[in-house]
Structures are given as C-alpha cells and as structure tokens.
Structures
1.
Amino acid sequence: MTILVTGGAGFIGSNFIFHMLGKYPEYRVICLDKLTYAGNLSTLAPVMENPNFRFVKLDICDREGVYQLFEEEHPDVVVNFAAESHVDRSIENPEVFLQTNILGTQVLMDACRKYGITRYHQVSTDEVYGDLPLDRPDLLFTEETPIHTSSPYSASKAAADLLVMAYHRTYGLPVTISRCSNNYGPYHFPEKLIPLMIANALADKPLPVYGEGLNVRDWLYVEDHCKAIDLIIHKGRAGEVYNIGGHNEMRNIDIVKLICKALGKPESLITYVTDRKGHDMRYAIDPTKIHTELGWLPETMFADGIQKTIQWYLDNKTWWQTIISGEYQDYYEKMYANR
Ligand code: NAD
Ligand code: DAU
C-alpha cells in the first residue's frame, strides 16, 4: 500500500505520517508539501531516514509536478491535508486560500482520475457548517447540517468539499470527506490559539483574547483525529462524509486561564483585543456516525491532552522558537500591534 499524504510537513499531516509509519511498517508513505510558512521540514526529521518514507517539495496546484509524482509512485490512497489553514490570514488575504484549497484539490483529484486510486480522502473542517448559538447547547453539527460558511477559509474548504462530492457523483471517484473540530497537540503552528498562548505566556507577553473570549470550540487531541482518518481510509464508505469531534466544548477564555495556571503565570497577562471579523461563536460536533459505523471514539481526555501538549512545548522550545523568531515576527506585528 502506498499512501500519498499532502501537507505532511504541517501540524496534523505530520502527526498522521508518524501514526501511519508507526502502525503500518509495511506501508510506503509519500509526503508532498510546498513548505509554505506553515510547513516545517524539521518536523519530519524523525522519519526522514525511514526507507518507506519519501518527502517531495511540491505545490498541489502544480499539475505537471503532481502528475509526474503519480507516475513515479502510483499511490493507492491520497489523503489531502494540504491547505491554507488559518482563519485570520484568510481575512487578510483570501486569494491563496482559493488557489490552494479549491484548485489544488481539483489538481489532486484529476491526478487520481488519470492514474487510478482506491481512495481519495479530503481532510475538511467543522467550520463548513458555520456556527451555533451559545444558548442552544442541544444543537450539534451532524453530517446533514447545511453548509453555511463565515470566513474565506471556511468558504474555500466548503467549495473543495462540494467539488470532491461532484467528482464522486460525476466520475465515480472513490472519495471520503472528514470534518473535524479544533485539534491541539505537538507541532501545532504558533499562530493558533493554544500554542500562541503557551509561547506568549512563557515569554510573559500579553495573551490576546479576541472579543470577550466567550467563543466555544470543540477540542480534539490530534492523535485521535489521525486515528479517525486511518479508520475512514480503510473502512469508511466511498461517497460519505464523517464528522470527527470529541464532545469537548471549551470557551477560549477558559483555555487561556488553564494555560496560565499550568505554567504558573498570572491571569493579568490576559488582554482582550478587537474581535475577529465574522467570528464564529460556537462549534460542536456530533460524532455518532463515525462511532456507530467505524467504532471510533476519542481516547485522550482534554485534561491529559492539554498537559501533554504544554509539556511538549516546554520540551521542544527550539522547534517553535525558531518559527517565531523568523518572518512570523512581521505577521505578529501586523495582526496584533494596536489591535
Ligand atoms: P497547517 O497549516 O499546520 O499545515 C498545512 C500544510 O500544508 C503545511 O505543511 C503547508 O506547507 C502545506 N501546504 C499549504 N499549501 C500547500 C500547497 N499549495 N501545496 C502543498 N502543500 C501545501 O494545517 P493543519 O492545521 O495541519 O491542517 C491540515 C488540514 O486539516 C487542513 O486541510 C485543515 O483545513 C484541516 N483541519 C484542521 C484543523 C485544525 O484544528 N488544525 C481542524 C479540522 C480540519
Ligand atoms: O474548527 C476547525 C478549525 O480550527 C480548522 O479548520 C482551522 O484550520 C483551525 O485553524 C481552527 O480554526 P479556529 O479559528 O477555531 O482556530 P484558532 O486557533 O485560530 O482560534 C481558536 C479560537 O481562539 C477562535 O475563537 C479565535 C480565538 N483566538 C485565536 C487567536 C489566534 C483568540 O482569542 N486569540 C488569538 O490570538
């Protein structure tokens, strides 16, 4: 079995590669990644010498390059993690989101049609469903919830999902889609809430909470997401969407306070800043389908997962300090100065 993993130098893709190479030593895993600001080759150092692993620096929008790679490797399964993934960046500059997230997905699926695969899996997000009100805890996203996007990021992910289903119906491509809630864990890029707050708290810098910090996200430990995708590509039904989430809703402010407490930092570091434009209020996944059909359940409780994550950032300072000392400084200045 040869699996092509796109976006494998990013947060979830790298965790997925570690999971697959660890669990299936007989599989060949090819990682295709453009190495944008969010991709980091050093993340893949632990598997670079593995004879069953190959890294290829490539843009999923590069049709010729992608076709060439399919000719060389003839992957059986493609798992597409490659994407522009940060909502705030999509609000500043939507264009690259449309290019990578929609057109890149098209190129990959065209390659799948041309060379033949047994499964194309699209890693999507709960953000395609829009948001839920805070005062209706009974409401959860199911696979039947209508698409109702808020940001250029979520609109681009939803457009890709529609295209994936169109390729299934029109060309019979054996596809699956997973829509997961917020992940956390090792190798999470420091622009995102949890690693940003850990890094800032460790440097005694202000902790920028958007709005009143009351927005709710449904947090899932990244390894549980990887295990769910592993199940879907092996046992999931073609043409189906699977929601993935851990029934673990938390308010942003509570997460930030928890990080302060775990690091022994004062809550006075918390600074309320101007809200994100179009900020989604609440996400909450109903994972009944993947549980009943595939037997998936989250294994890591948030209390354990967040401790493991904080410890990982304490033990791997070089990884994230290298990132935040580079061009990230300009990004941080642009997004947070005078906010
Ligand atoms: P990330 O930003 O950490 O990593 C994205 C990776 O894709 C990077 O390695 C980057 O170099 C690569 N990439 C970007 N554009 C590319 C291109 N044109 N060609 C090839 N490679 C390219 O993202 P992540 O958080 O790991 O998310 C991975 C996927 O999971 C995304 O599709 C995202 O929409 C989805 N998702 C993320 C979460 C989350 O909480 N992080 C939750 C649900 C779904
Ligand atoms: O739900 C899945 C999605 O989760 C994925 O599809 C996205 O790729 C991923 O980035 C994530 O999106 P969010 O926008 O939910 O994640 P983020 O970490 O950017 O923000 C989480 C919450 O924290 C959100 O309500 C905004 C808030 N926030 C974020 C940052 C970076 C702050 O209050 N301050 C911050 O500095």
2.
Amino acid sequence: MIFDILTIFPQLPSSVLAEGILGKAVKEGKVTVRVINLRDYTTDKHQVTDDRPYGGGEGMVMKPEPIYQAIQAMKAEDAGTRVVLLSPQGRLYTQAVAREMSTYNHLFIICGRYEGIDERILHFVDDEISIGDYVLSGGELAALVLIESTSRLLPGVLGSPDSAARDSFMDGLLKYPQFTRPQVWQELEVPSVLLSGDHEKIALWRRKEALKQTLLKRPDMLKTANLSDGDRRLLEEIERERKPKAG
Ligand code: ADE
C-alpha cells in the first residue's frame, strides 16, 4: 500500500517511519510512505502556502492552489488515489475507519496547518478525517496515526496473521489483559487459568475478561459490539459477580 503525506514539514514524519513495526513494513516494501513537500507546488519565489483569511481574524489560511496542484500531479500518476484531508472537522477515526482505509491501494493524505485550509479544497477531497475531538497544530501527527494503524491491518505487516484480529476494537471490544513473567510480581499473581495449559479454558477466560474490561472502562462500546448468546451469558455472569453478595 502507498501512503503519500503532503506537508510543509517534510522532516517531521521520518523517525516514526524508520522505527518499529511500521519501519519494518517500510523496509520490507509492504508499505511505501512518500513525504511530499507542499512548497514544491508553489509558483512564487518565496514558496508561500498560506494567506490572510477573508473576513479578517486571527491566523493564516492555507491557499488551495498548491494543494490542488499536488493532488492533480498525483492523480496524473495514479487516477485511483484516494485523497484524504486530516482536519478536526472530519469524521471520527476509529478501528472501523482504519479497516476501511486498509482496503485502498493508495492514500494521498493532506496535512492542514494554521487556522485551516481554504474550504474550496473540499471539492477535490474524497474523505475528511479527524483523529479525535481535540485540536493539533497540524495534520502530520494525525497522518502518522492513520498510517500506523492502517498498516498493521495489511497482510504480512504483523508477525502473526491473527494478532491484528486480537487487538482492542477489532470486534467492538477492548482487549483482554495480558501477563508475562515473573508469575508473582509485587505480591501480585498471574491468573492461574493462564498457567493451566487448557487452551479452551484460556480462550473463554480471555473472552470474559474482554467483556469485563469493556463493561467497566467503555460501556458505550457494548451497545454496538457484535455479541453472541455466549457473550451475553458471560456478561450476566460478570454482572452477578460484581454485585455484593446478599446476607
Ligand atoms: N488537525 C488538527 N487537529 C486534527 C485532528 N484532531 N484530527 C486530524 N487532523 C487534525
């Protein structure tokens, strides 16, 4: 999959793209990330990418023309490129949106800056995405969040093909808790079922714990999670265990 990042800060993404799982995916050619300098698409001597807002007010607005030219140049190379604008006004990014992104071959990601982008650019954008209800100074970190979370879902990027499937959010639940050695740490013990070697029991325990984590920490997610009859029975069990015993 190809990701293009259009930015006025082309140095910014480099360390994230060189390290960890994403760095490995880039090195192995499973993911290609190209950073495009927006200033290369300006035509004036000073390579200006912003201007004062019509109507007055604070800050600067990104000019539409250099962004448009960059989009056109990319579309000439690959007409199927999906153009994504990152902004706080976009639809909210979730694991489901990450899954959707992973179905495209080529994303062209526009990072906004300053007080925003001239609204008319939206006519040339396929999707506007926000990574959360807070404001960043620019879209670069959001672009990296999108690239990192989408890349994990591509075949061969994670060590084991089903580790992505076990991630939090994949089936609408938080992930079950994990433990490693030592077995007792700070007088806290690893749940004994995990030492039992009984894979069926362990799977059931993990499902129940995933349901419990979600119920306690993100009950809103249970409303839309894909729950089986077995899950509902486990939830009832969790509720019963949470209630103080009578008498
Ligand atoms: N740019 C500034 N804030 C943003 C956000 N929350 N999501 C995506 N892009 C942004």
